[in-house]
Structure formats: C-alpha cells, structure tokens
Amino acid sequence: MTTPLQRADVARVARLARLTLSDDELDLFTEQLGNVLEHANDMSALDLDGVVPTAHPFGLINVFRPDVVTPSLDREELLREAPDADSGRFAVPRILGEAP
Amino acid sequence: MSVLPDGWEMVVGLEVHTELLTKSKLFCGCENHFGSEPNTNVCPICLGLPGSLPVLNEHAVELAMRIGMALHCTIAPSTFHRKNYFYPDQSKDYQISQYDLPINANGYLDLPDGSRVRIERAHMEEDTGKTTHLGGSGRLAGADRSLVDYNRCGVPLVEIVSAPDIRSSAQARAYAAELRGILIATGASDGRMEEGSMRIDANVSVRRPGAEFGTRCEIKNLNSLRSLQRAIDHEALRQIELLEEGGTVRQETRHWDEDIGETSTLRVKEDAEDYRYFRDPDLVDLAPSEAWQARVRADMGPMPAERRHALETRLGTPTDAQRDAVVVVIDLGLERYVHAAADAGADVAIALSRAANELAGVESLDQLSSDSFVKTVAMEQSGALSATQAKAVLGELIANGGDPVSVAAAKGYEQLSSDSLEATIDELIALNPDEWGRYRDGDDKLAGFFTGLVMKATSGKANGKAVVAVLQSRR
Amino acid sequence: MKTALSIADNVRNGSSTAVAELEQTLDTIAARNDELNVFLHVDHDGARVMAEAVDAAIARGESVGPLAGVPIAIKDNLCQRGIPTTCSSKILEGWRPPYNATVIDRLVAAGAVPVGKTNLDEFAMGSSTENSAYGPTRNPLDPSRVPGGSSGGSAAAVAAAMTSISLGSDTGGSIRQPAALCGIVGVKPTYGLVSRYGMIAFSSSLDQIGPFSSTVADSALLLEVIAGHDPLDSTSLPESSPSLLAHVDDGVAGKRIGLVKELYEGSSPAVVAAVMGAAEALREAGATIVELSIPELRLGLSAYYLIAPAEASSNLARYDGVRFGRRVDGEDVTAMMEATRTAGFGAEVKRRIMLGTYALSAGYYDAYYGQALKVRTLTINAFARAYQEVDIILGATTPDVAFAFGEKAADPMAMYLNDVFTIPTNLAGDPALSLPFGRGDHNLPIGVQLLGPGRSEAQLFAAARTLEIADGRA
Ligand SMILES: [Mg+2]
Ligand SMILES: [Zn+2]
CATH number, domain at A21? Predict the structure, then answer.
C-alpha cells in the first residue's frame, strides 16, 4: 500500500512537469490529487500478480511505413508559427545545462 | 602497455550511437540527410506538432536487425517507450527509445587480439536536433541564446551498449574500430565519426584487480578513436589519483576537451533524472518474423574479421606490415581488387600493397576496373613495369580510367625489349671487367652497381628485377 | 431538424445548393453563438470556397461524395490547415496547424463543408466544457446547464441545429456524455477504426474521434466517411471502412442484449426508468434481454484516472514555448518552459499532468500506472466474457440529466464520477453509442448507451435505430 500523497511529492512532480505552483495551489492539489489516489487504492490493493498489463486494446504488431522520402514543411510557414526564430532556426533563451 | 600505475585496473563499457543509413527518418518521411539547410527536413511528426503521430520505418528495423545479427545478438519481440525529459533539442520533450524490451540483446564482439567484449543490447531510438549557441564563446556555457535546427531530430539511431568488459584504452579503441567496421559492412552506417554519425560515450571506473567495480563516470560524445583512447586513459588516471589521495569518485557525467586533454564535470548524477519511461501508446509492438529475419540474414555479406581472414589466407604467412595492410584494405572495402588479382594468379603481396597504398584514401574508384588493377599488378610482377611506374599507372587509371598497357605506353614506360636490355648489359659488363669479376665471384652487392648503370643507360626504362635476372644469367 | 442525409440529397438533386445550406448554417451560428459559445472560430471564407467547389462540381456533372454540401462542425482539437486550433487552451492561442487531420481530408473528399471549430474542455479534459480557456458552452436545451464534455461545443452545435452533424472525440465518454446531456446521438467507435492523425492527443491509447448527429442514420453515414485504415496512424485498424448505413434498419430480432447493472445502478430514478424502458422496447422488437453483472467495471474509473493522465502528462510535454503556440519569457530555457506552461495551462490540465507525472514516476509506477494497465486487462477480459453471452450491452450513459454550471466544478472527483458508465468501453477499445431515450427531471433528455464488442458498430446502429423508432423520434 502506498503512503498518502505529501505536499513535497506534489512539489517534486510539479518540478518534473515544468509547472510552478503557488503555496495555495500546492495545498489544493495535494488534497485533490490525494483524493483521486485514495480512490485508486481499491485498485492498487488488488493482487494482480499473474495479470498481463494491456498497453493497447488490440494487439496490432509490426506496423511500418516504407523508407520513402516525403515532402517536408515549408520553413517560412513553420517559423512564422514559432515564438522566436533566427537564421532559419528556432530561438530559445540560454540553456543552462547539457541534456540529462 | 598499460598507462596505469601498478596495482590498478580500469573497467570500461562503451555506448555507441550510430545513425542508420536510411533515406527517411525513423518515424516520418523527412529526408535523413546531413548538411541540409536548417529546418528544411522537418514535418509535423519530427517537429512534434500537436496531433502528429509516428509510424516506424521498416528499413530502419532491418538495418537494426543487421547490426544485431553481426553482433551475435538475440533478436526478440520489442516495444518502444517514451523517455520523458524536457530539453529544447527534443521536439516532443520525450525521446522514443527502446527500454526493457530492445530489438537486439545478449551478443558479443570478438576483437582482432582474440578478446571478446559482450554486447548487452543494441536498441533503436530517435536522434535529437542540433543547437548552436550565440554569445559567449559559442559554446553552451556562457551563451546567452541558442538556436535549434530539427533536421537531425528523428533520424534513426541504434545504441550499442557493451558490457563492462574492456580493460584498457587500447582495447576500447580496438572495440570501437572493429564495431565501426562492422557497422559499415552491414550497410547500417557510414561510420563517419567526424559528422557525428557514430558517437561514443565511455563509462570508466577503476579498481584493484579482483575487487568490486568502482564508481563509474560517463564521458560523453567522444568523436574520434583518438579522443576515445586519450579520454579513457586520462579519466582512469584521474580516478586513481583521487583514490590514492584518499578521496572518492563521484558518479557523474564528464566532458572531454580534446584541446587541453582533460575531462571535466558536466553533471553530477546525485539528482538522478526521473525519465518516467512507459510504452509509447502511439506505436505498436515490433516482432520480426522468423522468415523476415532469415531474409535479412541471407542478405548480409561477411563481416570484417571473416574478410580479413580470407585475405590473410591468400597471403600464406603474412608479415605484421601485411596484416596492417589487410586491416586498411578491409576497412576501406578494397579487398575485391586484391581478390581479383589473386584469382588471376597475380602476386597477392604486390596487389595488397598497391591496394593499401595507392587505392586507399582515394575519393572515387569508379574509373578503376578491377580488371585494370589486376593487369597493372601483373605488369609489375612480370617486370614490364617498375614499382614506381606501376604506382604512376594506377594513379592515371584512378583519375581518368583507360587500359594499363596504353597508359604505360603513353607515359613512355615502354619496356626495353629483352634483346636490347641484354645488349646494354653485355656492353656494360665489357666496360667494367673488375666489378663484373667480383660479382661473378659471389659479391652480390655489385648487382646494385650494375643495375644503377643500366638504369642510367636506359633513362630508367629498365625494370630492376629484369636487370638482376639477366645479370644472374650471365654469371 | 434537417438531417445530413436530406441536405446531401437536396444538394445533389438540385433542390438546394451547398452555398445555400452553408449560408443557413452561418445565419444560425450568428444568431445563437454569442449566447451559447459553441464555436471558437467560424471559417466563413474557407467554408464558402469549399461550398462553391461542391456546387461547381455538381454543375459540371461530376459525382460528389455522400456528404455533398453538408456543413459540419469540428471539435477544436482536430487540426485543420491554416485554421486556428486551440484545444480551448491559452497555450495554443493563435496557432494555425500546417496540416490537416486525416478526418478533415476525408470529410472534404466526401463533399462536407467544415464550418468552424467548436469549444471543448481544455485538451478534452473535463465533462462539462466549463474548463475552456475561452469560456463555457451553454446547453441549447437549457442555457443555465452544461452541455456535457469534453466535446460540449460539437454536441451543442447539433442540439442547437447550427449543423446537422459534427465531430467530437471520446477518451472516457467525451462524445457520449455530451450527446446524452444535449439529447442527440453520439458514437465512440472501436479504437483504431477512425484515424487519430491530426487529433491533438489527450490519452493516445483511449482517444477516438466520432460523430454527433440528431439521427442514428446520420451518425452511421458520417462514421462511414471518416472510418477506415490510415497509414499515418500506427494504431489504425488494417481494414477499410465498414458498411454501416446499409444496416441501420436491420433491427434486433434474435439479438441477445445484456442489461448490465454496473452500467445504470446509482443513477437517478428517471435514468433507471429510461434504461428499463429501452430494454422493454428492444425486447418488443424481438431481442432477448439478459440481466448481467460485470463487477470488474467498477474498477474502470480508477484505472482510467491513472492511465489517461499518465499518457497526457507525456503528450502535453511538447507545449514548451519553443516551436509553436504561446511563450512566456524566462531567464533561461527551463524558466521559459516553466513560465509558459504555468501561464498556458488551466487548473484541470495541470491537475491531470501532475497526477500522470506522479503515476509514472520512480517508485510509484508499479502501484499506480502498472496496476492500472492490469485492471485494463481485467476490464477487457470481463467484456469478452460478457460478449460470449450477449451481442450488445445496454446501460445508461450518465447517472443523471444535464447539471447546472458550477455544480461539480469545485470537486474534481465528483466530476470524474460522471464518466463512470462511459469509461469502461474506452479501456476495452470497444464501440459504444449514446442516444436520447425518454426524458428526466426538468424535461431534460436522458441518454441510454449501447455497447458492443470491437467492430460491432453496424449492429449498434441497428439497435439504436430500433430505439429511435420506439422513442417516437423517427
Ligand atoms: Mg539512448
Ligand atoms: Zn519529419
């Protein structure tokens, strides 16, 4: 059985999800998410050891596309939708670290 | 051999990322092409635009299977997962990769020195885009703005993960070189490290022999065999120094600076990333049938080790220099020339030497038929061409094609007829009776004296070997 | 109320034109949209161009598709090239997709005229269309009440007779529940029957696009047009579109219909009475009614509220301010992404992203997400067992009629419970439809639900048509 959701858990998850929560939101979400997880405990408590998880309702396998080049998008149309662009590229503020 | 102080051993595992030689990307039809104008090979799918969905490139799967087969892996039913982390070079903020069920697992790679490195897995995943940094020194650190090009985003990769079986930087280098040869031989990759189509991360730790594994550091993105070898040695020595001073190694990711020859901390792993892997619900399972696997296997040519062996067998007992030449010839895929020469009964050693030296590093060999190559070797062997002339003829054939006999003629390499060669030699014998006497009495060094005279007299048109043969016959 | 079938007939036989039908639709929208907030964007010019093209094709004597000249409303989570597509989120404000969803291409090829984009709960997360960044949609039958959700705008468009048909999407009931609350027909097709390409994902393994209409036959027609294999969607079923319209009058004689108590118990008395009435009507039409219990269905809600948020947490990662949509600046790229997402997403979306991130995170995966996938297996097996005994399952769509604004908004769990009858079919991937049958409190419509095994749409339409006749609406 899992321990009840803590405020610190919600803060950690918010960081992972790139969301900033105010103190009030932290309290509210801790309570609301706690309720949903509590409801899920009826399910978590089941012994489902031999049950195979289903990721997909129908077991399709081996769906492919042929290795054929298809037209790409028009770069100008694309960069028009970009919040910031420079020299044919998407521009972002400075990056503080390498990819994890 | 080892650069480490006595009583220390390094433990190395390599993760090699290789881009696959497909026409299109892994999950969309954009061109898989290095060097295009930024963001011109992108579509809703590889840009991760809302609503877009991935569909797996069948040929990429086939190339991944070839790699697995060449590495003696088990090919198993597999799935695609999402590796979730936010980073601007990743258009969906997750990477589609294989996780607990990779397509290839549990293989091995045998190195030329006879050692074996186990392969844990060789899984498929998508590449990220490329960032350039503005301001500062143009590097990530200190930049004030970055620009992202998604042309590379979604290019198919296979990540080959070795077991921590490597014990020296030389072995690591040999592993990477052998793997590169295999990747090229399977047709899965062009192996171009300088273009980033093959990239290596090294996990390095040190220990007292027989002790438990030490804490490892990961050195990222080594882009040449030389960097790989230097970085591993440097990192192992750094760790040993640290431990001998009573310190501890911190698990972290490190960056290799080729210019100053040092590694430095990129990221400490204490705050382990939580990637929240789960099966990508947009993709279905991959389960290559036996029949498909058999077809792929049947299509595969021999791997470098087998090809090296075939050439060495034709040489009989190869010298060290010839073994090196064999490696070069196999690496560059030039052995068909040598085999053609051998098949025609020409001298394998001459053919090997010409292939390893004159054909290596040449931009294009389209003009040189293996028939012309064989003829040139035969002419050199018979004495019709000197070694220097044979090299010049090959150079001309490579540049402009043609027939070796006419090329040699055009260059004025017409050999003296054997009659006129013999007449010249007889004349020179008559002019130098003392030297001839000493030669006849067994002083072989004087063969060189006479050969020099003949060359001078014939303006270099005579063939050295033929001269010696005539001198012998006159003895 | 005009049907799509009659519009297409009239356009084809010259008694009407696509342009005339469109103008009437645009007039109705203009008259009622301010009050009801159904459309977020009306594509006057683009729709006129398409309508004129249909009329021109007819004038040239060319054959036109089965939806020739039929105006249709599109849920605003479906991409249409050059048309603002927001998912009712601030984070996509102003975004114009550079490509069409497969369903849009198929509609246009069939002669339909997409007239605009309809309101929804932000990223389809909700059951009332109150969670829209662009304000709630009102129920045309009683503007003080919600139309249901998340496809509330598309349901309201049909209920208000703005268009005869519309497209929605159903992840846990988002077509059937608003269809029930608005008194129309709504269908969640078999997973994979309709391509998801170009549908902005909420939960990829559960999402399906489906039709709304006022009649059963119109939904059958619309589904025929949009269904069938699409090479752009790996999860698309391999077969071509099934024949549906031809079977709507097949009836239910000889069919075994399961009355499943887990799919109506706990509902208001009027809803239970409607379900019983529907069972009786089907029996009178020649079906055998079998009372069944499928206890596993009770676990569906918990599994759904872990699986859907987990997938959503990953699907919604790409809204990071880098490539499209809205950006809020920050010191560095991480700060920018966080500021963008914090300002761009509404509370319910944040709640589900958080829930899903938690369910997938290290140490919790097995207890929550992993366990939910196993419960999904139990649900699939339980349905499969039931379908060995019966051909079709009958239940309620929602526990009650349309509720008032704000009634459930403060308590997410209360809102989630509204989907308790619709969620199990999404977990199983099976088809289900909702159609109005009888009236409840305040004379508001009640929806009954028909469920079947995968690919059984044709017999669901036949059963629905039987009920439509019995309810005196045909
Ligand atoms: Mg990887
Ligand atoms: Zn692409």
Answer: 1.10.20
